[in-house]
Amino acid sequence: MIKDALLKKHIFQKKDLFTVGHEDKKTPNADIYLFAVKPQDFLEASKRLKGVKGKILISIMAGIPTAKIAKLIPGNQIVRSMPNLGAKSCESMTTWMTAGHPSQKEKEIIRTIFSSFGEELEVKSDDMINKATALVGSGPGFVYFIADLLTKQAVKFRFSKNDSQKLIKQMFKGAVNTWITSGETAAELQKKVTSKKGTTEAGIKSFQKNKLPHILEKGILTSYNRAKELSNNFLSFNS
């Protein structure tokens, strides 16, 4: 999907992009290498670039810290990133960081690549990537989890399954689009739709009474701790 976005946005020409799979015996020379493999396959994949120097290496692999990549493939500009599911529709929120001191030109290239499939945000550490993983990497899964609960409740209210999907999809679409276009915060918009002693207020008070904010925070922190655990495990593996 990233390759398609780069071609669609005319970032690169088709002749300048290539994909290397397990079955390929040779890795062509390039200025930029993007690792889009499963984390457990990285050690084997990194052997393809043994001796490569002075290149931009972009990782979109979860849990692999920049220090590990730099140790296995030294002498290159390492970029660690965390896109999310939105990349499928060129609406990703990608956080990224570099290990080293990239030039302004290199940063512009990196930003251009990530911007081709959504928004990008540079952060300063592996830990911030882990936090972003919990917030926006896992975030779509959290949103779909809540959307599924709302859809199931609509079915309990005797809407058909198709109508339930339509109701909740359009509700999310309208709410998010309003948030994006209004320039207001989520908290400000919530206040606007929460009439005193109305239905929304009643529901929110119930959420607060039953500690939904705490439950959500705990889930996000659990996701963050798992991201740290994966990074620490990989950092010590085969060190």
Would you mind describing this structure in some detail?
Strand 1 (32-35), helix 2 and strand 2 form a beta-alpha-beta unit. This protein has helices at 2-8, 42-46, 66-72, 104-115, 126-137, 139-156, 161-182, 186-193, 199-209, 212-236, and strands spanning 32-35, 56-59, 77-82, 92-99, 118-122. The mean pLDDT is 91. The protein has two domains: 2-124, NAD(P)-binding Rossmann-like Domain (Rossmann fold), CATH 3.40.50.720; 139-227, Orthogonal Bundle (ProC C-terminal domain-like fold), CATH 1.10.3730.10. Helix content is 53%, strand content 11%. It is built from ten helices and five strands, in the order αβαβαββαβαααααα. Helix 5 (126-137) packs across helix 10 and helix 6 (139-156) crosses helix 7 (161-182). The chain has a five-stranded mixed beta sheet with strand order 1-2-3-4-5, sandwiched between helices. The chain is an alpha/beta fold.
